[in-house]
Every structure is written in structure tokens, then in C-alpha cells.
Design brief:
single chain; alpha/beta; FAD/NAD(P)-binding domain; 2 domains; six-stranded mixed sheet; 25 strands; elongated; disordered C terminus
């Protein structure tokens, strides 16, 4: 029998096969499904978990609500338990966070129920044929043909094998390829399928497992996964290490007697304080004992034939990505078929064209499948505590992992999920965009990231050389030491007796006396007006940078990271020079943001944003202005200089104090939300902060430029660029002048690279659209026109706006 030219032949009425059939039907593409069993949705004792990526595609197909309703109890809480059933890590807001971040819950239901829902949504049910077990396939120049055990022949343009891990389509495809092109498939792959664990999975009823809870039970060389099901059902998986890794034909197939033998070994295992494994098994309605292969095949296609689902990529069930990956691969294949049909009808495509479609499908999916396979394998090893190290991690590290670490790890798991290109994505509120909603998929820094670390570390080393080695060689530090010893700063234009006490704490006063000695010539050298002008320009240029350090220190997602304490970094660069310390900070900030999904994660907000500008004005700008006022006594000037030194730390302290005071006075206005959803309430304050500090820095820069152009006493070249940093200086004023020149040049150079790296990070995140070459030219022009301080403020202004406008927010 020949069915009249179905365009796509699907072998297997599985999740993969019926998902693909539904997708093709939605696009008006002819298909036929050949299922070997007499029933489409037999109950074989298996459950399936559907995660946000899979539900998003099912939502596009109009059946996600049916799946969620059939599951009845989406996973609300996740618990990890030890061998005594005691919960050592619990995630009570799992369901809330999952839906808020990714738009959909995680649900569990019978596999047969999901298959039935897919079948019910297919309108052309006459295209779904049962009891049609494939026995041979043959690729032709214009079509592919399939023959079933019943003697029927079906022809079409594409053959898709969604027939599971023991795929007949894969076997026959390999046989055909070996005859015509033995190099197409790696012959070693026939025995490459590995198995480390076996599993008894089943369904029980009447078990006192809290609804909406999923529990993982850790044990040595075995583990349990226990999700609650709809109604009175509980699903369970007993995963057991078989003792050695086996491959291919050595993989065992278990009998019911072998299942009972393993059950007997684990009969008294504790699942929860009130449930043992025996309770699950005695109340089971179905159970199956099988091995757990895990493998992503090297090639999924040959000519007009491709495998999808478990036939192409088989994962550990622990992460629930097997069925979802089958749906995703079906979506990717549909996308490529539809795209090709826009150029030519399917029956008009040559074998080379079809092969290109199938190759593109695998290339789009293979990297993600390898990543998911590795993640599932690693987690299974951890839960089975397969080594002394993993046992230590499970017992002494895992219980202390913060929730934030876990939910951040969801992003590379769920966000890269495929969807159907031709069907609108439903407007589900969520804070994390899927990668296909972005302008481009986020990518890692790769080797460039390591290069940036190296360059910033090199800049810090150069800073040390130019500030401290040069200061020693040119005699500046010797002159400082001499002034401290004599208690007198004496120069060609300055003679000032040094104050000895500021705080009454000698260790602090010693540091302050040294810093005051360095600053006095820079502020009071009336013989060289370029010197105080240069210092004022330097300090105002640094204003936006200090603002940004403070912002990043108070940003939610930076808590407990290397950049979480702006005060700490402020102390460092006040003592060792910002030109030397800023590159180290920039390297630390790059390390903190190294994850490719960093910029699309929640936690962008800065709760203390409204207090940073007032703190910056009071703690930094006002003390800076006071430095350059005319004071009646040298003693007062030294006190002003001394108490300017901790200005960056004071800014952090004032921000914290103002924030705490506000929360006490206006508790309802500052109460932290229990939801992880980002708000944009901080954006107006951050915009103002960047605008104000950037404007001040720009005014300082343009003022300097005009002064250099109009005044014969001020030379921009002499003011900004030292002639020879290592040449011996005649006076302390000359040495300090060179020191601050180098400090300014170093921080200016490192800020340029930081801005460029930050813009590149935004580009690779997929959020904004721009050309890096134009950004580079724009940075150069901005440095010249408005100066480095204003440029940094502008970059951070843009960065903040880009991070706040994620596609997921548009669904709110």
C-alpha cells in the first residue's frame, strides 16, 4: 500500500513524534505518524516532568494549560534529603521563583497522559496509524520510503525517527549509510552507548507525600527522586549504580525477578521520616526496571532521514530534560523545514537541500544537548555520592549553597530553550528572557576574558612601577620621608609645619601625616598654578568612578562578591593610588560578571540608589571643594586634607546610614519585596546619579580644555603628561606633580578598557544592538570631548538602561 505522498513520515507516536506532528499540522505540512504499538498512549508505569522550556512550546501549540491542569500540582517546593530522610536543604519558593523568572512551572504527570493530550490536539487523527512497525527504510534521490511489518509502504520527503533509544530508524539508517558511505557514521558508535546506573521507576497511590513537593534522597551509589503526581499519585525513581560502566551490547536488560531482588535490597530505605521505599513499592500501580543510557549521538541524520528525541540524545531522568529536549528538537526541525519551504515546496527540495535542513537542526541542538547531558550526569553522580569528594560536597558543602546560586544556575538550563519561530510566543510574565527573545544568544567571553584579566593585572603592575618604583627612584618618597622626619614641608614656594595628631591613634595619624605631606604641595603650590588645577581635575574626574563603585557595591546581584564593598576598594586606592588599584577592581568586576547570563539575571536593582547621590555629595564632593578653599591657617588646611582621605569610605557609610534611617522612618516604603522580580524604582535615581556626576566631570574637562587653550600659564601637555617619571626631582612639589600625573593617566587608560569591555559584555549578552567598532570610536571621541569621567558615567547610564529593558519585562 502506498499512502499518497505524505511530506514528513514520523516513526514513533512518542512525545517527540506527536509533538512534531502537531507542529507540522499547525504549519499546514502533510505528515503521517507510524506507531508500532496498537495503542497510542499505553500506561507503562512512566511519569514525565515538563519544565518551562517545554511548556513554552506547548503553550505555542495551545495545549500547555491542559498539561498543567492534568498535572494538578505543579512543583512548589524542592527538598534534598539524606539517607535518614532528613531534609538538609529545602527550597520552599521553588515554584514561585520558577514561574516569576521563566514564566512557567515544573509539572509531573503520567507520560501516557501527555501523549494523549498531544494526540487529542491533533486534528488529522487519520494521519496517526498504529500497529505499523517499521522494518526497512530507503532513501531515494527524490523521496524516502518506509516499509512496515504489515507490508505497507509509505513515501515522503523526510523521514523522522522518534522511536526511542532502541530506534529502528537509527539502525536502518546506519545500515543504509554503511552500504553507500561507510565513513558517514562512526562504526564505534554502535557500541558507544554507555550505562552507569539502572533505575526502577514507578507510580504509587495513597502515599503521604506532600503535594507539590519534589524530593531527592542522597545515598552512596544510589539515590531517589520522588515527585508528587496528580490525584493520589506519587512518582518515584530508584537509581542504582550497577557497579561498572557498560557499553552497547553489554548493556543488560532486566527481568521482573531482578527487579524484585533489587527491591529487596532497598526495602527499608528511608525516603522521608514517615515514608520508606517499601511503602512506595507495596502501593505501586506500575513499575519498570531498566538501565539509564546517556549519550548524544555524533550524527543524527543521513540524506533524508533524521532521528530526534531519545533516538538522537538520551539523558539521565534526574533533571527532567529528556522529554523536553525531544519537544525542543522537534521545534528546531519544524523551524528549519518551514524556513526552507518559504523558498521552495518541500517535495521540490533535493536530497542535498533536505540534508542541509537536517544538518542545521543538529548543529542548532547538539551543543545544548551535550551541556544538558553533562549537567544531568554530574548531578546524578553527586546525589549518588559516587566518590569521597562528592560525599564531602553532599554532606558539608551542598547544605550551605545559597538559593541565589541555584536559581542563577537555572538560566543556562532553561533560557536557551528552542521555540517555534513562526508562532507568536505567549505573553507570560517573567523576568528572565529566553535567548531566542534576545537580539542574539548570549555567549561567553572565551579566551578574550582571560586576556582581559591579564591586561588589567599588567596595568596594575605598571601602576605599581609608575607610582611607587618611580617615586622611589626619582626621590619623591625620600623627600616625603625627610619632610615627615623634620615635621616640615619646605619647598621653593611652600613652607608649612606638619601637624602631628589628627585622631589621637598613632597608627592612623602616621598614615594621615604621610598623605597630608603628599597633598600639601599639590594644593598649595601657588608658584605652579597647573599643579592644584591638575589635582582638582583629577578628583572631579574620579567622581563618576566612585559613584559607580558605590552603585556596584550596593547592587543586589553583587552581594558577597569581590565588588560588594565599595568602602574596602576606596581604602585601597586612597592608600595605594587609584591608578594601581582601579585595574584590580576592574578585573574583579569582570570576574563577578563572567557568567554569560549575568546581564539577563535578576538582581540588577540597587535598593540604596536614592541615597548614593546625597552621600556622594556630602562625603566626597563637598570635602573635595573644601580642599581648594583659602584657609586662614595651615593647621586647618591639614585637617581638611586629612579628613578628605577616607572620603570613598565615608560615601559608603553615609549611603548605608541614610538607607537604614529611611527604612526606620518609612518602613512601608522601603520594605523588601518577597518576590525576586526586579523593579525599576531605582532607575530614576541612578539616571540622576550618572547625569549629575557625569556633568560635573564633563565641566571639569571642558574647563581644563578652555583653560589650556586660553591661558598662557597653563599647558595641557605639561599638566597631563610627565616628561620623565624616573628622572630625579628637585623638589617635593615636582615629585608629587609627576605622581598624580601618572595616577591620572593610569586610571584613565584602565577606565577606557573597562568601558570597552563593559560595552562588549552588553553586546555578547544579546540585550542592546550596536556595533563594537562604532563604540570604540565613540569612546575615543567622548574621551576627547567630555573627558574620561563623563564617558564612564555615560557608559554606565546606557548599561543600566540596557539591563533594565529585558524582553521578559515586556510581558508584564
Amino acid at each position: 500500500m502506498t499512502l499518497q505522498d505524505p511530506k514528513v513520515i514520523i516513526v514513533g507516536g512518542s512525545v517527540a513524534g506527536l509533538s512534531l506532528a502537531l507542529m507540522l499540522e499547525r504549519n499546514g505540512i502533510d505528515f503521517v505518524v507510524l506507531e508500532g504499538y496498537p495503542d497510542i498512549a499505553p500506561q507503562i508505569g512512566a511519569s514525565i516532568g515538563i519544565v518551562p522550556g517545554g511548556l513554552r512550546i506547548l503553550d505555542q501549540l495551545g495545549c500547555s494549560d491542559q498539561v498543567i491542569a492534568a498535572a494538578e500540582y505543579p512543583v512548589k517546593k524542592v527538598e534534598f534529603r539524606d539517607s535518614k530522610g532528613k531534609a538538609f536543604w529545602s527550597f520552599g519558593k521553588f515554584g514561585q521563583y520558577m514561574e516569576e523568572r521563566h514564566g512557567y512551572p515544573v509539572v509531573f504527570l503520567d507520560r501516557c497522559t501527555l501523549i494523549q493530550i498531544l494526540y487529542d490536539n491533533i486534528k488529522q487523527k487519520d494521519k496517526i496509524l498504529t500497529s505499523e512497525r517499521v522494518v526497512s527504510i530507503e532513501n531515494h534521490s527524490s523521496h524516502v520510503s518506509v516499509t512496515t511489518k504489515a507490508g505497507k509502504t509509505f513515501t515522503g520527503s523526510i523521514l523522522v525517527g522518534g522511536d526511542g533509544i532502541h530506534s529502528t530508524v537509527r539502525e536502518k539508517m546506519w545500515e543504509e549509510a554503511n552500504k553507500l558511505d561507510p565513513t558517514w557514521f562512526d562504526p564505534a558508535e554502535k557500541e558507544a552507548l554507555p550505562v552507569t546506573w539502572s533505575c526502577i521507576f514507578g507510580i504509587s497511590e495513597g502515599i503521604s507525600i506532600e503535594k507539590g513537593t519534589m524530593s531527592s534522597v542522597f545515598n552512596e551509589h544510589f539515590s531517589y527522586l520522588i515527585p508528587s503526581g496528580p490525584g493520589d499519585k506519587t512518582y518515584w525513581f530508584l537509581v542504582n549504580n550497577i557497579g561498572k560502566k557498560v557499553y552497547g551490547s553489554d548493556i543488560p536488560r532486566y527481568t521482573k525477578e531482578e527487579e524484585l531482588a533489587l527491591v529487596k535490597q532497598h526495602w527499608d530505605d528511608v525516603i522521608t521520616p514517615t515514608v520508606r521505599f517499601s511503602d512506595l513499592y507495596k502501593n505501586k500501580t506500575n513499575s519498570v526496571y531498566t538501565t539509564l543510557p546517556e549519550y548524544v549521538y555524533k550524527k543524527w541524520y543521513y540524506k533524508r532521514t533524521i532521528t530526534i528525541g531519545d533516538a538522537a540524545h538520551k539523558l539521565e531522568p534526574l533533571t527532567g530534560q529528556g522529554g523536553n529536549s525531544a519537544i525542543e528538537t522537534a521545534a528546531a526541525l519544524t523551524n528549519n523545514i518551514v524556513a526552507a519551504m518559504k523558498l521552495c515546496p518541500l517535495q521540490g527540495l533535493s536530497t542535498e537541500d533536505i540534508t542541509s535542513i537536517l544538518e542545521k537542526t543538529q548543529s542548532q541542538r547538539e551543543e545544548r544537548m551535550q551541556s544538558l547531558l553533562k549537567a544531568a550526569h554530574k548531578r546524578q553522580r553527586l546525589e549518588c555520592m559516587e566518590s569521597p569528594l562528592l560525599k564531602f560536597v553532599a554532606n558539608f558543602v551542598f547544605p550551605f549553597i545559597p538559593e541565589k546560586t541555584i536559581i542563577t544556575a537555572w538560566i543556562p538550563t532553561y533560557a536557551p530553550a528552542t521555540s517555534l519561530n513562526m508562532i507568536p510566543i505567549p505573553k507570560k510574565p517573567r523576568t528572565i528572557p529566553y535567548y531566542d527573545e534576545l537580539l542574539r544568544s548570549p555567549s561567553s567571553r572565551g579566551k578574550i576574558g582571560y586576556l582581559l584579566y591579564a591586561v588589567f593585572m599588567a596595568m596594575a603592575f605598571i601602576g605599581y612601577k609608575m607610582l611607587f618604583v618611580a617615586g622611589k627612584v626619582n626621590g619623591t618618597f625620600g623627600l616625603v620621608a625627610q619632610a615627615l622626619q623634620n615635621g616640615l614641608v619646605k619647598d621653593s614656594a611652600i613652607e608649612m609645619e606638619l601637624r602631628q595628631s589628627y585622631t589621637g591613634i598613632e597608627s592612623i595619624d602616621k598614615i594621615l601625616r604621610t598623605l597630608v605631606t603628599i597633598f600639601i604641595p599639590a594644593i598649595s603650590n601657588n608658584a605652579n598654578p597647573e599643579q592644584p588645577f591638575q589635582l582638582l581635575y583629577f578628583l572631579l574626574t574620579a567622581l563618576p568612578l566612585i559613584a559607580i563603585f558605590t552603585v556596584e557595591g550596593y547592587r543586589q546581584r553583587n552581594q558577597w562578591t569581590l565588588v560588594s564593598s565599595a568602602g574596602f576598594w576606596g581604602i585601597l586606592y586612597q592608600l595605594r593610588g587609584i591608578g594601581c588599584i582601579a585595574p584590580l577592581y576592574f578585573a574583579a568586576s569582570l570576574f563577578v560578571s563572567r557568567n554569560q547570563a549575568f546581564f539577563i539575571d535578576t538582581g540588577r536593582t540597587v535598593p540604596a540608589a536614592k541615597f548614593i547621590l546625597p552621600a556622594l555629595m556630602m562625603g566626597y564632593l563637598v570635602p573635595t571643594i573644601l580642599l581648594f578653599l583659602t584657609w586662614g591657617s595651615s593647621d586647618t588646611l591639614q585637617v581638611v586634607i586629612a579628613f578628605w582621605q577616607p572620603a570613598p569610605l565615608v560615601v559608603s557609610i553615609l549611603t548605608t546610614v541614610l538607607s537604614m534611617a529611611s527604612s526606620m522612618i518609612f518602613p512601608s516604603a522601603t520594605k523588601k519585596a518577597s518576590s525576586p522580580v526586579d523593579t525599576e524604582s531605582d532607575l530614576p535615581h541612578l539616571r540622576t546619579l550618572y547625569q549629575v556626576t557625569g556633568t560635573i566631570a564633563a565641566c571639569a574637562h571642558t574647563g581644563l580644555m578652555f583653560a589650556g587653550a586660553l591661558s598662557s600659564e597653563i599647558s595641557l601637555t605639561r599638566l597631563l603628561f610627565p616628561t620623565d617619571s624616573f628622572a630625579p626631582g628637585k623638589t617635593l612639589s615636582e615629585g608629587v606633580f609627576v605622581f598624580f600625573q601618572n595616577d591620572l593617566l593610569l586610571v584613565t587608560a584602565s577606565c577606557f578598557l573597562w568601558c570597552l569591555a563593559s560595552l562588549w559584555d552588553l553586546h555578547r549578552s544579546g540585550l542592546p544592538s550596536f556595533y563594537m567598532r562604532l563604540c570604540f570610536l565613540g569612546l575615543v571621541a567622548s574621551y576627547i570631548i567630555v573627558g574620561p569621567g563623563a564617558t564612564v558615567a555615560a557608559v554606565w547610564f546606557w548599561r543600566e538602561e540596557a539591563m533594565s529593558r529585558k524582553p521578559g519585562h515586556l510581558c508584564k
